[in-house]
């Protein structure tokens, strides 16, 4: 198998063509960004940590019957994935008030929600990735109503599994962002990554943060926080 031409470069990853049809080569970057790229820094070792954590979580979810684009880890910073057409929606699941929800609604961070909240954001950097309703999604015509229902169902299933996974290692899953894509056959698959870049993760007892808020809010060393998550998960699971 051979890495082909560069197809796309985003804030955190590069996507390459693979010599195998229907597969893509993902390379994680050491770049950390926040506020739609307004804050940016290169942090040595971040690519390896995100690749390892995301590979581990995708492999764990696969064992629980939740399909994703992930095929296998290729190197410290690379993984092989199934080619999908990404749906331009970020699916955010919230278990505890934090981040933009706290700011938007004037609610104190750290308050547990009575039930998980699922939100949709339209992926458009120029618009600032706005929060959208299901009616907005229909107007934008980016996903059919039955697909939106399936996205919510899959997001809820991922939430249940991740809550259990992180609780086992003393970590509280505050909220997280998912992306999904369609295969050529029309199957919806979990895509992108699941890592401290896309999840808020707090120590269950001390509420210490192990996620991108370390960088976003200048709360501490990002690599140390991510390494703590990998070390805790690595004690139980192996890719």
N-to-C SSE string, H for helix and E for strand = EEEEEHEEEEHEEHHEEEHH
Spans where pLDDT lies below 50 across 5 or more residues: none
Rg computed from alpha carbons, rounded to a whole number of angstroms:
17 Å
Number of helices: 6
What is the 3D form?
globular
CATH superfamily of the largest domain: ATP-grasp fold, B domain
Q: How far apart are the termini?
A: 20 Å
Provide the domain count.
2
The tally of strands reads: 14
CATH uppermost class of the largest domain: Alpha Beta
- What CATH architecture of the largest domain would you give? 2-Layer Sandwich
Helix content: 25-40%
Q: Give me the CATH fold name of the largest domain.
A: D-amino Acid Aminotransferase, Chain A, domain 1
Largest sheet descriptor: 7 strands, antiparallel
Proportion of residues in β-strands: 25-35%
Structural class call reads alpha+beta
Provide a descriptive summary of the structure in words.
Keywords: ATP-binding, Ligase, Nucleotide-binding, Purine biosynthesis. The chain contains 6 helices and 14 strands. The protein has 239 residues and is of the alpha+beta class. It folds into 2 domains: 80 residues, Phosphorylase Kinase, domain 1, CATH 3.30.200.20; 137 residues, ATP-grasp fold, B domain (D-amino Acid Aminotransferase, Chain A, domain 1, 2-Layer Sandwich), CATH 3.30.470.20. Strands 8, 9, 10, 11, 12, 13 and 14 form a 7-stranded antiparallel sheet that branches. The model has no long low-confidence stretch (mean pLDDT 96).
What secondary-structure arrangement, pairings included, does this model have?
Layout: E1 3-9, E2 13-18, E3 23-28, E4 31-34, E5 39-42, H1 46-63, E6 70-73, E7 78-82, E8 85-86, E9 89-96, H2 99-105, E10 112-122, E11 131-132, H3 134-140, H4 145-168, E12 171-182, E13 188-191, E14 199-203, H5 213-216, H6 222-234
Antiparallel strand pairs: 1-2, 2-3, 3-7, 4-5, 6-7, 8-12, 9-10, 9-12, 10-11, 12-13, 12-14
Catalytic activity: 5-amino-1-(5-phospho-D-ribosyl)imidazole-4-carboxylate + L-aspartate + ATP = (2S)-2-[5-amino-1-(5-phospho-beta-D-ribosyl)imidazole-4-carboxamido]succinate + ADP + phosphate + 2 H(+)
Protein name: Phosphoribosylaminoimidazole-succinocarboxamide synthase
Pathway: Purine metabolism; IMP biosynthesis via de novo pathway; 5-amino-1-(5-phospho-D-ribosyl)imidazole-4-carboxamide from 5-amino-1-(5-phospho-D-ribosyl)imidazole-4-carboxylate: step 1/2
